[in-house]
Design brief:
The structure holds 2 protein chains of 2 kinds. By secondary structure, chain A is mainly alpha-helical. Chain A contains 38 helices and 11 strands. The C terminus of chain A is likely disordered. Classes of the chains: A mainly alpha, B mainly beta.
């Protein structure tokens, strides 16, 4: 939004003002981002979005404006200019790409991590120097020696024959951890996914190690830095301690989990649990609570119910997996001679769980959908509650994982057989196993992300789903889920198509609900990793921490719900209705609201604009009030006159600046920020678009063999890559001549209709009368005051003005100085200014052969390394130096 | 180099108390004539002008005119460290970024020294036209203070009307209304308790009481306050500053823009 870095440049110009001094001023209010702000910004104490947030936000802001007796004119956005659409589209593309890249990198990182772990576990045997520590370590980890992380269980398989050797290897493997402990990132996902015992081990060692000699080498050489070093060490220690505590807690909880499971089973929810015939360590629990999902009648209560059942199921889920863990542990204790099996199950169960989850999410989803359709009367209701479901994807995931267990009930044979087959294949050869498990983990990771994507996307192929489920109702359960499963995989492509279609569709939907998908869809990539850890955590977390987690999840859901909300036309209509009740005039701009605000000021219909969008300057705004509705900051007033006077930049240069740094209409040039942009403008002067044209021609000339920049400031400009079409005149004109409504009709303000407003607030926001009056009466009272407070400046004229110094960085200051010197350098060359300034002004003064020679000489001096005296080179050089004076031709 | 010594340091303390709530940051203009300050409050409704004549100081040296921009509440805090009987000396070297305050206790050998950071402030100097006012009222300053304080309980604005030889302060609010009438008195033996009204034409004007109450903080500086009113011109509230021995030291003047009826503009 706005021009990148422009506010940062203008900051010294802003003057904090007292809102009282705005009394009776006619100000345009840029409404374009209000709706978004209110929808996403306003939340209840649980973080959920508030109903009618958009009008509520507007209501409060109008009250604020009216209380200060400001006469506002609201300006709404019209259409979106083509240029803006293009920029948004390219930005979106770029973002998707970078997301993809980051995901890839994450996978790569995980892969390498796993590989290194495996290698280390195999190869550290020969390390003799470890022996001493090894023995101590053995004492320490007596109980946990059989418990291996999932990553290392492959060791087991290859050493079936020789148990003692394998034992040694395990210890070694774990020890190899210790060796490289300092490299272990305790915050990394991979670390967190290790079993708590291992984590505990590593952390305690890390903690103890820190007190040794190692820290002497880490001491900072600067004595001044010592305190910060101490501080960071302290923080680090604390972090370690915290992690240790968490690990300990988890270890404790595991032991208790079995009893806790029994306890939770008596808490009133109907469960059915069965043992899987082929696997004595896995149990399946069926939770009846999910039936509630289908009984939702109205969308609101339905949502609450669904959420509730989610929560319950969520906690149940963690119980279930807890149970798994507990079971395996118990068995392990009983039967330590069955080292192999025990450790296998111990480590395998989380993996297994996730696998089952992944396999069954699809079928489960269908079942749920079916419930919905059977019981809800209208399609809309169904889709609404479905939407809600999708938004709670975090919880969904957990729930689905849970229900996956339920539905495991229906299709156990298949799953188990696959698991079994996988197990057997895993046991075949250790090399292969290594790879397999590695793949598996990555698969789980990627599938997880895919799942969350799917979850988000499911609503789109609704029709097919409905058909499907209706048709499959007749069939028996098992067959049904299988059919759906198949169908669903086919559906895999459909969502993506839908996605594309959705994106293009205009925001016309009456309920606006559909659009939630759009934004939801955009976020899942980010959430993947979160989802993954959440599932892991849920599997490991103890019932004690479930409550806390639930709270966190609820917050998270609220946040996402808010993010998912988007502006619809309906909201704009509602906002306008409210403005009518307040008697406030409003304008709908043909295109951009900011452009219209600027136009109104230029037509002298307003005395300024309230906006936080820096685009206003490019459209010709003169007086801008910033941070008006930001409670944490002072309201600041910015004047174009001050900007021109103190910063020496005008509207045209700001447009040029936008084209360099990037704005709504253009992506800008990569690597150019506000400061560099000002430097470029100060180096290449001119009217209108000329600076950029000059910059481009100079840059073109420097792309040949001649790389000598001419001066120090210009040196860094060469490395930027300019497009052929730069500078784009279309963008420049779009800013300079925006499409606006320029009727001169003056505005009228009505009196707020108190009765209607009261009624409105009570019905829309659910406020009671006293609350409404609390807000409205002071405003009405203020408005009824017939007296107007005059200002001193209305009577006394300013005689002398002393402006304080503007504090900016050195680079900026010299650039501004140079911009300002444009007019003065004709008379005299300031000597005190920086070298570059003197050089450039000299260049302007004597732009003839002499400069050319000088430039040549300078370039020779600057590039002694490139003394290749081929003919083509000197030619290029000549061209380059010729273009320089031509670039400064336009300045005078 | 700028240096000014004031044996009656309390005066400076009182001046600061009288302006620090109205203006947070302001610049002192120091010239060979004396020290002066002009500043508007943040909402630009009122203006305060302070003048301290060079003669009033016990020692005054100003080689060239300097502008000392500073945070007035900081200055006031530091002045709180000075006793009422202390001699205060202000010192500012040319091109310095600090002003030094030296407090010397009376008849004692104790001196304390404080420094205040100076600021480069963005300021406007307003030209105030020298106009004759329709009404000039002189009244005891504590009376003015009390009237402003009392009426603020009633409403936000006071309507000052003047006809013949009486001045009337009236306020209206939710709880009711209140008026205070003052008639011209001629008590020759107690000049500071007298009320004198000189009027060219009758006047009625409204002002925000909030600001008048800020002005009344200058009450300790002078026993008498003078109000000057004219239609369509800000009200002037002036406190003249005098030494203990009665000689003229300067003044503190407040200007307040009136509240006018909406239809008027």
């Amino acid at each position: 939004m706005g021009v990148k870095g422009l506010w940062q440049l203008l900051e010294p110009i802003g003057k904090p003002i007292n809102l009282e001094s705005l009394e009776n001023k006619v100000l345009a209010v840029d409404f374009s981002i209000w709706l978004n702000q209110s929808i996403k910004g306003i939340r209840d104490k649980h973080g959920h979005p508030v109903q009618n947030a958009h009008i509520k936000g507007l209501f409060n802001r109008i009250c604020k404006l009216l209380f200060y007796k400001i006469k506002p004119i609201f300006v709404f956005d019209g259409g979106v200019p083509v240029l803006k659409k293009q920029t948004i589209a390219t930005r979106h593309k770029r973002r998707l790409k970078s997301l993809e890249d980051s995901e890839k990198n994450a996978h790569k990182a995980l892969k390498t991590f796993l590989r290194s772990q495996i290698k280390r576990s195999l190869g550290s045997e020969s390390d003799d120097s470890n022996l001493k520590l090894l023995s101590t370590y053995r004492i320490h980890s007596n109980d946990n020696v059989f418990e291996l992380p999932a990553l290392e269980n492959e060791n087991e398989f290859n050493e079936v024959d020789d148990q003692t050797e394998s034992f040694c290897k395990q210890v070694n493997a774990q020890f190899s951890h210790l060796q490289n402990l300092n490299q272990v990132d305790i915050n990394s996902e991979a670390f967190k996914s290790l079993p708590p015992e291992i984590r505990h081990e590593i952390l305690t060692h890390l903690k103890e190690q820190k007190t040794g000699w190692a820290k002497i080498s880490a001491l900072p050489s600067e004595s001044n830095e010592f305190s910060s070093y101490q501080m960071s060490r302290l923080l680090h220690k604390r972090k370690l301690q915290q992690n240790i505590e968490v690990a300990e807690e988890e270890m404790n909880d595991r032991m208790q989990s079995e009893e806790l499971f029994d306890f939770s089973a008596t808490s009133g929810i109907r469960y059915e649990s069965k043992r899987v015939m082929s696997d004595e360590n896995t149990r399946i629990i069926y939770c009846d609570k999910s039936q509630n999902v289908s009984k939702s009648d109205s969308k609101n209560t339905g949502r609450v119910e669904v959420l509730n059942s989610f929560k319950k199921c969520d906690s149940l889920f963690s119980d279930v997996t807890e149970f798994d863990f507990g079971k395996s542990e118990a068995i392990k204790n009983e039967n330590s001679s069955f080292l192999k099996t025990a450790s296998k199950t111990g480590n395998f169960s989380p993996l297994e769980a996730t696998k089952i989850i992944k396999r069954n999410i699809e079928s489960d989803k269908k079942q749920r959908t079916e419930f919905e359709i059977q019981n809800s009367d209208s399609y809309l209701e169904f889709s609404n509650s479905m939407n809600k479901l999708q938004q709670t994807s975090q919880i969904c995931n957990d729930l689905e994982a849970n229900i996956a267990h339920d539905s495991d009930f229906d299709v156990p044979d298949e799953t188990l057989s696959t698991i079994n087959s996988e197990e057997t294949t895993e046991a075949v050869s250790d090399e292969k196993v290594n790879e397999d498990i590695e793949k598996e983990l990555i698969e789980v990771l990627s599938n997880d992300s895919y799942d969350s994507l799917e979850i988000v996307k499911t609503p789109e192929p609704k029709s097919s789903v409905t058909e499907l489920s209706e048709e499959s109702k007749k069939k028996d359960r098992k067959g049904e889920s299988q059919v759906i499963e198949e169908k669903f995989t086919d559906n895999g492509d459909i969502p993506s198509k839908y996605e594309a279609a959705e994106f293009k569709s205009p925001i016309k939907c009456a309920s606006g609900k559909n659009h939630q998908f759009e934004s939801v869809k955009e976020t899942p990539e980010k959430r993947n990793s979160e989802v993954f850890t959440k599932i892991r955590d849920a599997a490991k977390a103890s019932p004690q921490s479930v409550k806390r987690q639930l709270y966190e999840i609820e917050r998270e859901v609220g946040r996402q719900e808010r993010h998912a909300a988007t502006v619809s036309d309906q909201m704009i209509i509602e906002a306008q209705e409210l403005l009518r009740l307040f008697g406030i005039p409003f304008v709908r701009s043909p295109l951009e609201a900011e452009a219209q605000c600027a136009a109104l000021e230029n037509l002298e219909l307003t005395e300024g604009t309230i906006t936080d969008d820096s685009d206003i300057w490019l459209f010709g705004g003169k007086t801008v009030y910033k941070n008006f509705f930001n409670q944490s900051k002072y309201v600041e007033v910015y004047n174009l006159k001050d900007i021109e006077k103190d910063l020496k930049i005008n509207r045209e240069s700001m447009v040029c600046l936008a084209m360099l740094t990037g704005s709504d209409y253009t992506d800008g040039i990569e690597g150019i920020g506000a400061v560099t942009a000002v430097e470029i403008l100060s180096e290449f002067k001119g009217e209108g678009l000329e600076p950029l044209e000059n910059f481009k021609s100079w840059w073109d000339s420097k792309q040949g063999k001649d790389k000598s920049p001419g001066n120090k400031t210009r040196a860094k400009f060469i490395k930027f890559s300019l497009e052929e079409s730069f500078p784009n005149k279309v963008v420049f004109n779009a800013y300079m001549n925006p499409k606006v409504d320029d009727t001169l009709e003056s505005f009228k303000w009505g009196v707020p209709d108190l009765d209607l407003l009261r009624h409105y607030a009570m019905s829309k926001f659910g406020w009671n009368k006293s609350k409404v009056d609390e807000v409205l009466l002071p405003v009405i009272k203020r408005l009824n005051e017939k007296k107007v407070q005059m200002r001193i400046s209305d009577y006394f004229k300013c005689e002398a003005r002393h402006s304080g110094q503007i504090s900016t960085s050195k680079r900026l200051q010299s650039a501004f100085d140079k911009l300002g010197s444009e007019s003065s350098n004709k008379s005299s060359v300031p000597r005190s200014k920086s070298k570059t300034l003197a050089k450039s002004s000299l260049k302007q003064k004597v732009k003839n052969q002499a400069t050319r020679n000088r430039g040549k000489a300078a370039s020779k001096v600057l590039s002694p390394l490139k003394k290749v005296s081929t003919e083509s080179k000197t030619k290029a050089k000549k061209n380059a130096t010729l273009s320089e004076p031509s670039s400064s031709d336009g300045e005078d | 180099m700028f240096e000014a010594k004031l044996i009656q340091g309390a005066i400076l303390k009182k001046i600061l108390d009288a302006i620090k709530d109205l203006v947070n940051e302001a610049s002192w203009d120091c010239s060979s004539q004396g020290m002066s300050l002009q500043a508007m409050d943040t909402s630009h409704v009122s203006l305060v002008a302070v003048q301290m004549k060079a003669d009033g100081f016990d020692k005054y040296r100003c080689d060239r005119s300097v502008t000392l921009g500073m945070n007035l509440s900081s200055l006031s805090k530091i002045l709180k460290c000075a006793g009422n009987d202390d001699t205060i000396t202000l010192k500012a070297p040319d091109d310095g970024d600090k002003i030094t305050l030296v407090f010397e206790a009376k008849n004692e050998s104790e001196t304390s020294e404080y420094e205040v950071k100076l600021m480069n402030l963005d300021s406007e100097y307003l030209g105030i036209p020298d106009t004759p006012y329709s009404v000039n009222v002189k009244m005891p300053s504590h009376k003015f203070q009390r009237i402003c304080r009392d009426l603020q309980q009633i409403g936000d604005a006071v309507t000052i009307s003047c006809a013949k030889d009486s001045i009337r302060f009236a306020a209206k609010g939710d709880l009711g209304s209140g008026t205070v009438n003052l008639c011209q008195t001629a008590s020759a033996d107690k000049p500071e308790d007298s009320v004198s009204i000189s009027m060219q034409e009758p006047i009625i004007q409204s002002f925000a009481l909030k600001y008048l109450n800020h002005f009344a903080k200058a009450t300790p500086l002078s026993p008498q306050v003078s109000l000057s009113l004219s239609p369509d011109v800000p009200l002037v509230v002036e406190y003249s500053i005098t030494d203990d021995d009665g000689s003229d030291f300067g003044y503190i003047r407040y200007y307040l823009a009136p509240k006018i009826d909406e239809n008027d503009d």
